[in-house]
Amino acid sequence: MNRKSFSRITWFRRHRKAVVNSGDKKMPNGILEEQEQQRVMLLSRSPSGPKKYFPIPVENLEEEIRMRSADEGKLFREEFNSLTPGYVQGTFEMANKEENREKNRYPNILPYDHSRVILTQIDGVSPSDYINASYIDGYKEKNKFIAAQGPKQETVNDFWRMIWEQKSAIIVMLTNLKERKEEKCYQYWPDQGCWTYGNIRVSVEDCIVLVDYTIRKFCVQSLHDGCKAPRLVTQLHFTSWPDFGVPFTPIGMLKFLKKVKTLNPAHAGPIVVHCSAGVGRTGTFIVIDAIMDMMHAEQKVDVFEFVSRIRNQRPQMVQTDMQYSFIYQALLEYYLYGDTELDVSSLEKHLQTSHNAAPNLVKIGLEEEFKKLTNVRIMKENMRTGNLPANMKKARVIQIIPCKRSTFYISKQVL
């Protein structure tokens, strides 16, 4: 087998579609109902048994990531594969009830009974307290998040009922409605105007489209609780997650997470986070948020322990070794460069403060900021094309070559 064929087989194994159970219900035309029968590839236990990974002091984080990234991330994969898939004694009785199965987007991604979100029972509708969503703790805050699957058309009413009952003010969406021509999430909000979902009225107040994410603001009111004032619910929709793998850089995700923290009111209910299954990207986002808080409080990073802990609340949280590695890259980016974003409204004040300070202090501050730029790590594996012998002679300065993602390719000349 030549190397090219082997690479194609490896790519296929990594990116093959989720398994579809051929014995499942079919549509009238005999075609499998993909949205119902699609399964998410589950993780297996490490054959070598559980290992213990200790917290990393923040000052050692860069070196630890460098070692784990060697040999195409071999140590990252070993660490990730040492995680247990979930809570051994966890049960899924409510999720597996016949009347609730249609409410699950994927039949093998279900909430535990002990940590599931329980909706208020609707009079005359039994059972009506089930939704595929789980409470997830933050770094120190109990039930800081709700990890949920992307709503289906049949569960949109329940989704908004959960938002209202839990007093949530923020929805974090980490998937697009369709990816690779497959529905990942049903559109559960109106594009404009007002729409009623069950007993919850949702009207669009504002929509701001940015490079990496979109902010939508909704006025939400319960028709049953007419005496209660309407609430503002903000959806932050991260749109830069690629169909395959993880974002090329964690910068967009870090800015997105900062905006989520900024917009979440102090006394609001849990932040509702969802992707499609509610475990992969959802888990990645929650872990980054929690470990950033840990870095501030303890000056250390313990990704392994935290992922293990939240898998006891919802199985399979953080689904791939690529997502696991991305968490570390985001934490390193945050540790090395911090938050350099400056709001336009505060720019003038920032400049005045700089001018009023002692000249030498201003110079030191600017020098330190510029020094961070010179310390930005260059990933050599992203420069392979430019470093080929045939291409190096085309570069005026061999230290300055484009990375693969931004290289402009010209068509081959036909002689």
TrEMBL record:
<feature type="domain" description="Tyrosine-protein phosphatase">
    <location>
        <begin position="76"/>
        <end position="334"/>
    </location>
</feature>
<protein>
    <recommendedName>
        <fullName>protein-tyrosine-phosphatase</fullName>
        <ecNumber>3.1.3.48</ecNumber>
    </recommendedName>
</protein>
<keyword id="KW-0597">Phosphoprotein</keyword>
<dbReference type="GO" id="GO:0005886">
    <property type="term" value="C:plasma membrane"/>
</dbReference>
<keyword id="KW-0812">Transmembrane</keyword>
<dbReference type="InterPro" id="IPR000242">
    <property type="entry name" value="PTP_cat"/>
</dbReference>
<dbReference type="InterPro" id="IPR016130">
    <property type="entry name" value="Tyr_Pase_AS"/>
</dbReference>
<dbReference type="InterPro" id="IPR003595">
    <property type="entry name" value="Tyr_Pase_cat"/>
</dbReference>
<keyword id="KW-0472">Membrane</keyword>
<comment type="similarity">
    <text>Belongs to the protein-tyrosine phosphatase family. Receptor class 4 subfamily.</text>
</comment>
<keyword id="KW-0325">Glycoprotein</keyword>
<keyword id="KW-1003">Cell membrane</keyword>
<dbReference type="InterPro" id="IPR029021">
    <property type="entry name" value="Prot-tyrosine_phosphatase-like"/>
</dbReference>
<keyword id="KW-0378">Hydrolase</keyword>
<dbReference type="InterPro" id="IPR050348">
    <property type="entry name" value="Protein-Tyr_Phosphatase"/>
</dbReference>
<dbReference type="GO" id="GO:0004725">
    <property type="term" value="F:protein tyrosine phosphatase activity"/>
</dbReference>
<keyword id="KW-0904">Protein phosphatase</keyword>
<feature type="domain" description="Tyrosine specific protein phosphatases">
    <location>
        <begin position="254"/>
        <end position="325"/>
    </location>
</feature>
<keyword id="KW-1133">Transmembrane helix</keyword>
<dbReference type="InterPro" id="IPR000387">
    <property type="entry name" value="Tyr_Pase_dom"/>
</dbReference>
<keyword id="KW-0677">Repeat</keyword>
<keyword id="KW-0732">Signal</keyword>
<dbReference type="Pfam" id="PF00102">
    <property type="entry name" value="Y_phosphatase"/>
</dbReference>
